[in-house]
Structure to design on (285 residues):
């Protein structure tokens, strides 16, 4: 006879089996591979920390690491500032048609990445691109090769990412603002505080948990930057948009250096973990 006490475990078992097979096991396996030299076909050869040492002696990896960190920091700062500004504006009772604007700013999140990449390829086109046409209309005679110039390529991709994500994180800011009791804000005004003082000393401290969440969540996505530069530039020009994720992809699926790629992945994982821990510690202060 079927034991009713054990029946719940049978219902939740598929999830834990799938989680173990497709999440836990690959994580453990890739960690083991990071200490070996393996092309996926021949026998693995244990190399200890050889892959990790080689990584930090490889110029391409160091460039991709620098690009990833710089792009992530700039992306997170700009995204947070824009999300806060939009959040305050879209939560303001003065603004008419708030529902329309909230929906409009959220739409980019719902658009598939290939479509977004195509749109921005047209915007960033060196000749007759939308952005260059606007700059030409404003009086700039020389067109800019946004995706082909090493000075602009990485930041053009960061701009794409900010445009795509700002509306999503703005929703969290709006939710946080609506959770703050109006009586608290009104009390600040009654005590003689100006608008900026109320924002700085009353609203922002209460938004701190949401701000920390935005920083951590956006940083995870930022450090995993892959699709946009791969679709638009494939890491070029001259590795200007190469990232750690692209480095992992190339070594794993183009050069079949699975152990080396696994080591790259774990370096990236450690960077994300350190960044998240730092933010959590700051949040507790």
């Amino acid at each position: 006879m079927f034991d009713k006490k054990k029946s719940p475990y049978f219902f939740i078992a598929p999830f834990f089996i799938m989680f173990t097979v497709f999440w836990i096991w690959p994580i453990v396996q890739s960690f083991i591979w990071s200490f070996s030299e393996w092309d996926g076909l021949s026998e693995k050869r244990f190399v200890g920390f050889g892959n990790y040492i080689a990584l930090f002696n490889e110029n391409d990896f160091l460039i991709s690491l620098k690009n990833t960190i710089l792009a992530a920091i700039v992306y997170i700062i700009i995204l947070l500032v824009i999300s806060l500004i939009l959040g305050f504006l879209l939560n303001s009772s003065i603004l008419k048609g708030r529902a329309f604007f909230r929906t409009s700013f959220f739409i980019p999140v719902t658009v598939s990445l290939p479509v977004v990449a195509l749109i921005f390829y047209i915007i960033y086109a060196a000749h007759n691109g939308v952005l260059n046409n606007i700059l030409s209309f404003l009086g700039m005679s020389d067109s800019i090769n946004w995706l082909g110039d090493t000075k602009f390529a990485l930041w053009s991709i960061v701009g794409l990412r900010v445009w795509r994500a700002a509306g999503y994180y703005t929703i969290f800011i709006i939710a946080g603002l609506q959770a703050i009791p109006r009586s608290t804000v009104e009390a600040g005004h009654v005590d003689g505080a100006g608008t900026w003082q109320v924002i700085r000393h009353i609203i922002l401290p209460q938004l701190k948990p949401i701000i920390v969440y935005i920083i951590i969540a956006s940083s995870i996505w930022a450090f995993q930057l892959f699709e946009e530069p791969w679709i638009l530039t494939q890491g070029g020009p001259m590795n200007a948009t190469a990232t750690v994720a692209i480095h992992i992809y190339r070594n794993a699926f183009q050069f079949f250096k699975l152990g080396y790629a696994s080591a790259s992945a774990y370096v990236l994982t450690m960077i994300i973990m350190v960044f998240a821990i730092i933010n959590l510690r700051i949040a507790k202060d």
